[in-house]
Design a protein that fits this description.
CATH superfamily of the largest domain: Aldolase class I
Structural class: alpha/beta
Radius of gyration: 21 Å
Helix content: 25-40%
CATH class of the largest domain: Alpha Beta
Strand content: 15-25%
Distance between the termini: 39 Å
CATH architecture of the largest domain: Alpha-Beta Barrel
Largest sheet: 7 strands, parallel
Order of helices and strands: EHHEHEHEHHEHEEHHEEHEHHEE
Number of strands: 12
Number of domains: 2
Number of helices: 12
Length: about 325
């Protein structure tokens, strides 16, 4: 089964606050709010590139505070997406919103229009970090929203960020643990970036804020990924999927951005997995057997893991083993 998401970006639509890190227009590459008719064309365009069989497709409304939009506008968007659900062309509808814009009336409306998953932007479960980030909600709002979403039988997603003002490694890990306690089905992990035209940019220029290094962000996200993996919380994404303006220097001032950030994190995760199963520090040969779909992750981004273990073993060899399931692996060494 292949899983696809058709993203519909509604940048900063109905957001009551401007978070210190936020510049949704540069993140999404979308400057105008799409109309319902445009959404239908966008969905059809994406569907034309997807296989007809063995796939699960969702339409996902991202980028703003979806449930804060005028109810008529919400219904216009959802009516378009629901039409594709009824026709059997897509399997579900996902919306992203704020935790303080969840209540029984809102959830009832989403249920009517066949919404299947709700992602709330918690960003942190530390109230001091939330205040410094200008979020305008508390950790209690996240807890209450999560409970209502689960009670109404939606898939619950809780998004988090690392490296916000006032955040620490310990606070970020505690946020991840709190997300687990709230029984989230899915999560996304975003390291904070310094974008032009954001409050964080001014803080950065005034030396009030120092972003994470790429190495720090990768190491922390790997630790958090492993925490989520152990309890079955699915990590949908790590790192932003940026617009072209990130690459030409127009939008990004500083921070742990890398176009293959998720790949870097998974390389670190596999480094930890393999290292934990090697009981000696040096040897002649190391053989690593993994499922074929994860061979590149095990080898590491630009062969980083192979280079790492080559410091301790004369020969390091990787083998694709179809008998192993995803995330299973085996090591031999001498």
């Amino acid at each position: 089964m292949h899983y696809y998401k058709i993203p519909v970006f509604v940048p900063e639509l109905a957001c009551p606050f401007r978070c210190v890190y936020c510049n949704q227009y540069d993140i999404s590459g979308v400057s105008d709010v799409p109309e319902a008719g445009e959404v239908e064309g966008l969905i059809n365009k994406h569907l034309s590139t997807m296989p007809d069989n063995n796939c699960h497709v969702e339409v996902a409304f991202f980028g703003g505070n979806f449930t804060g939009i005028n109810i008529i506008k919400q219904q216009e968007y959802l009516s378009v997406a629901r039409k594709f659900v009824k026709a059997g062309k897509i399997d579900g509808i996902r919306v992203s919103t704020r935790p303080d814009y969840i209540n029984d009336e809102i959830l009832k409306n989403l249920k009517i229009y066949d919404v299947t998953a709700i992602e709330i932007g918690a960003q942190s479960m530390d109230d001091g970090v939330l205040l410094a980030a200008g979020r305008g909600h508390t950790s209690l709002d996240v807890k209450n929203a999560a409970g209502m979403i689960i009670k109404n039988n939606f898939e619950l997603g809780i998004q988090m960020m690392t490296g916000l003002p006032g955040d620490t490694v310990e606070k970020a890990i505690d946020t991840a643990k709190r997300i687990v306690e709230l029984k989230a089905d899915t999560t996304r992990i975003y390291p904070a970036l310094v974008l032009k035209n954001s409050s964080l940019a001014a803080m950065y220029r005034d030396n009030i804020y120092t972003p994470q290094t790429l190495e720090e962000a990768v190491a922390l996200c790997a630790e958090i990924f492993i925490l989520f993996e152990k309890v079955g919380v699915k990590v949908l994404r790590m790192g932003l999927h940026p617009s072209e303006s990130f690459y030409d220097g127009e939008s990004l001032l500083a921070g742990p951005f890398h176009p293959a950030f998720g790949e870097l994190v998974m390389s670190k995760v596999w480094n930890k997995r393999i290292a934990a199963n090697i009981k000696q520090n040096i040897g002649e040969e190391l053989k690593i057997y993994v499922n074929p779909t994860q061979l590149n992750q095990a080898i590491g981004h630009k062969s980083s893991n192979k280079k790492h273990f080559s410091k301790s073993f004369d020969k390091v060899k990787y083998f694709a083993d179809r008998s192993l399931k995803k995330d299973q692996f085996h090591v031999d060494y001498r």
